[in-house]
Amino acid sequence: MKLTLPIETINLPSGTDLADRLRSMTDDEFYHFCQENPDVKFERDSNGNIEIMALTGGETGRRNTKLTSRLDIWSDETQRGLVFDSSTGFKLPNGADRSPDVAWVSQQQWNRLTPEQRRKFPPLCPEFLVELMSETDVLRMAEDKMREYIDNGCRLAWLIDPKAETARIYHADGSVQVVQGFDNVLSGENTLPGFTFNLSLLR
After folding, report:
1. Which of 58, 103, 142, 176 fits 84 for a cystine, CB–CB 3.0-4.6 Å?
2. Can you give the C-alpha Rg of the chain in angstroms?
3. Are 179 and 166 in contact (CB under 8 A)?
């Protein structure tokens, strides 16, 4: 679940024009804003609206770990790229700051970044990512975010709904494949050659 706060609606501390400050916040300022509030997960859309993401429950955290650990094993074995968890923010080409539940970036794309860019929110869209829906997430909003990822350069993205036991697979050409049932195995296709994930691990 997320709460989107249009800048104009934020309650301001007395004597502080916080709305103007957030509206004009640079990438560095937003990064430090997030570091100064480590107990809260923020995202920012391309219009500058701050989105406060709810903390995950135990089941969602367990499932995130299953996904991240399996992908990390494949990544270590192939040395093709790097895996990031849900605490990592990425600056997308459209200006949004997003933190998918699981993300993979090729070594080639990572090597293009400066040390400073790597230390902060990497200015790129992961080539592969996963968003794991919680029980309170709204499907339409989750689908919009997946399309945003694809529009910004993601090559393969999985939107997984454990409650409905459904996975939606988004491709770079805009096509979406719906997989019903957690008895299925998802493939990393050409983006992650040889990587597979058994959805039954998320039950």
Report:
1. 103
2. 17
3. yes
Answer whether 128's CB lies under 8 Å from 155's CB.
yes
For residue 143, the surrounding DSSP H or E stretch is: helix 139-151
**All domains of the chain, ordered by start, with CATH?**
2-53 (no CATH), 58-202 (3.90.1570.10)
pLDDT digits (tens, 9 = 90+) for 142-180: 999 999 999 999 999 999 999 999 999 999 999 999 999
Residue 34 dihedral angles phi and psi, to the nearest 5°: -70, -40
The torsion of the CA quartet 29, 31, 36, 42, rounded to 10 degrees, works out to 120
What is the CB-side half-sphere exposure of residue 144 using CA atoms within 13 A?
Answer: 7
Q: Do residues 180 and 197 lie in contact, with contact meaning Cβ atoms separated by under 8 Å?
A: no
Tell me how crowded residue 123 is: count the other CB atoms within 10 A of its CB: 14
Coil, helix or strand for 180? strand
- pTM (2 d.p.): 0.88
Residue type, 27: D
